[in-house]
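Supplementary Methods, section 5.1.

A reviewer requested that the exact input to the structure prediction be made available. We therefore reproduce it here, unchanged from the version used in the analyses.
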Amino acid sequence: MDPRRTLTMAGRVIAQILRDRRTLALILVVPLVVLTIAGLLIRVSGGDAAFGVVNQDEGATVLITAVNIADAIVDRLAAVEGVTVREFASEAAASEALGAGVVDAYVTFGPTFSADARATGRVTLDVVLEGSDPMTSLRAEAALTRASIEALAGIARLGFGGGALSSSPRASYRFSSAQPTGTAARSSTPWITSRRCLSGCSCSCSCSSSRA
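The structure derived from this sequence is encoded token-by-token as follows.
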């Protein structure tokens, strides 16, 4: 291809674009407007996630060492940046706080939480999310997942659960979620999140997703 001809054609195209104000606006102005709006939306929904905790775990004993998995997860959760933790005496109190908007999610640890983990080698985290803000729900669920990974990594070194603990967050939504609804097939992988509708409707909707 002749370089002169290529440069001539390129010069003509550039000249046409410079004369067309609408094309210049689409190239220069529209992207700036879209990015500005997107940045404002992300900034508005980027606040801290308030987490409620109902910790009734009585712990378990490994050899001569007392282990409380729930305490370890709560400590790690409180250390996650952008997350505030509030403890409640009962699930009813946590549910009321969730409905009032005091917390964005809450997780419940039953009395035999650690003992069940020791017996099965698996930890199931029952978390209820408010659900009206998808970004906050995702942030809260990610924070709980991170906290559980860090806590279980330290506890597994004690030989707890055979030295290989797996975690299965089980999330429920008080209101509608941005996650797709519909029943999905169960997976055998340890990272499974099942979601069920708690909005009071008569339908039963659930969604499961796996994490590699």
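The chain has a mean pLDDT of 74. These observations are discussed further in the main text.
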